[in-house]
Design goal:
Layout: H1 2-53, H2 57-80, H3 87-116, H4 126-162
Helix pairs in contact: 1-2, 2-3, 3-4
Length: 163
């Protein structure tokens, strides 16, 4: 009987330690997400300023595709380095990855728009206007989607911490 009590006590300490470790990992994940998000946002602001100041389309596209896009893979790698067993922690991690993927898609759409955008429409082609408007509408939807996905991450994290 004493062995059984000792075994149960040891098992409960192990389980409490695992739960505490996962809670620490969750806090670490959230901090890593915020830190990398802030770094990426600052880097994007600098790069977008370079795009605005550049008169060469090739240079602008190089910034989108060679400077900005690779940073998203690094960000995803950081988030993927965490392993969780609890479903709400996994959902938060998936929301973070979804947010990063959407942000990457938006950045690619900016690059595609820059690549396809023509300042003038010399042939007065109606399809140009339709394509232009469709591209802008898609970009606007992605921008709105980004904000809601970031808000979801904040809500999920707060909900987990309240439990």
């Amino acid at each position: 009987m004493k062995k059984l009590i000792f075994l149960m006590a040891a098992l409960s300490f192990i389980l409490m330690g695992c739960g505490e470790n996962e809670s620490d990992d969750l806090e670490s994940l959230y901090e890593a997400f915020n830190r990398n998000h802030e770094e990426l946002r600052n880097e994007m602001e600098r790069e977008l300023e370079d795009i605005r100041n550049s008169d060469e389309r090739e240079n602008q596209l190089d910034i989108y595709y060679n400077n900005l896009i690779p940073k998203f893979e690094d960000f995803k790698s950081v988030i993927n380095n965490y392993d969780f067993g609890e479903s709400d922690h996994l959902e938060l991690q998936e929301s973070m990855l979804d947010y990063i993927n959407t942000l990457e898609t938006l950045t690619k759409r900016y690059g595609e728009f820059n690549l396809n955008f023509y300042v003038s429409n010399p042939m007065d082609d109606d399809s140009f206007s339709e394509t232009f408007d469709e591209d802008l509408e898609e970009i606007k939807k992605l921008e709105d989607n980004i904000d809601s996905k970031h808000d979801l991450i904040e809500e999920q994290y707060e909900s987990i911490n309240e439990e």
